[in-house]
Write a structure and sequence with these properties.
Length: about 80
């Protein structure tokens, strides 16, 4: 069994999008899929909250939520970001 465990991040095998759900795992129908691209391929990142997608896009693509950015500018100096 242990041989099937990936020891390096590159060795991790992810299920392909569209495959049957993994037995025993809860299936969510309200997932949000990233519309971005990585190395010319559609990104397969899926998560269940808009915040998660935003975080992913910010980390992966450096995207910035313009609305949030402006809001932060206005509040700057008054108060630190609330943990984001
Ligand atoms: Zn993505």
């Amino acid at each position: 069994m242990l041989e099937a465990v990936a020891h390096n991040e590159e060795d991790v095998e992810y299920p392909q999008a569209g495959e049957e759900p993994v037995e025993g795992l809860e299936v969510f129908k309200d997932g949000l899929q990233c519309m971005g691209q990585q190395d010319g391929n559609p990104c397969k990142y899926v998560c269940r909250t808009a915040f998660g997608i935003q975080k992913h896009c910010r980390l992966e693509y450096g995207w910035v939520n313009e609305r949030g950015r402006r809001g932060n500018v206005r509040r700057k100096g008054k108060q630190a970001l609330n943990g984001m």
